[in-house]
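Re: that chain you flagged

S.,

Sorry for the slow reply, it's been a week of failed gels. I finally had a moment to sit down with the sequence you sent. For the record, here it is as I used it:
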Amino acid sequence: MQKKNIKTLIISAVIVVLLLIITASTITIVPAGTSGVVVTMGKVGDHALDSGLHFRIPFVQSVVMMNNKIQKCEVESNSVSKDLQTVSSAVAVNFHITSDSASNIYKTIGEQYQDTVLQPAIQEAVKSISAQYTAEELITKRTAVGDEIGSALTEKVSDYGIIIDKFNIVNFEFSEEFNVAIEQKQVAEQNYLKAQTEKEQQIMEAEADAKKQVIAAEAEAEATLKKAEAEAEANEKINASLNGNILTYQQIQKWDGKYPSVVSSDSSVLIDIPKSSSNSVNTQSTSPAPNE
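Prediction finished late last night. Pasting the structure tokens below so you have them in one place:
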């Protein structure tokens, strides 16, 4: 009787375990940022399961998890520029797949869609856009080139349900000959700019000196003019202040008290001295007396 009870307990325990296993196999938990693709007897369903708790038919259905989070893909590519320079590019792409496209991607491409679709599309986009620019333009217009490659890549993979979030050109590398040529060109441009700067500096200095000379000449001319005007004004005042009495006084001051030894008939003494003066001068003629 005791053995029968033990056997019954064992059978019951096995049944419970099997029921637990079966029950657990009917429950599927889809993590956040993931889509669950339901596969029923090898057939892929049209719609994927969103994140959360779901039930499935045990031993008949399976759920494949497809990552919907942003992923990163790095690719190195060799291409040729418009001027036939070899270009080695390193690019990085951030992308994700949508929940709606998860089932279709798994059905048509599989879980290795990066290797099958994304990387070849990146290679093709890089090559096609790089061929539209010269090697120098790839450097100077790097942002524009990156935007164009990103747009071309988006157009190629959007039909598969792959969304390009960001495209970055990590690096451009060129041949050693091209690098030397670029360096020489930069040196030449720097020397040219230096020469231009020095020339402009010399011109500015020459213009400054010329301006100083003009200012000095104008100042000197103005000073000369003012001096001449001052002298003219002084002479005018002097001339206005002169009268007959002053001129006579000046003649007297300059006269030495002697009459001229010879006086012509039409000559006259400029100084009129009054005869009543006590200090009158003897004005007797100096001509010789006639013979008696």
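What I noticed first: Residues 2-67 form one domain.

Talk soon,
D.
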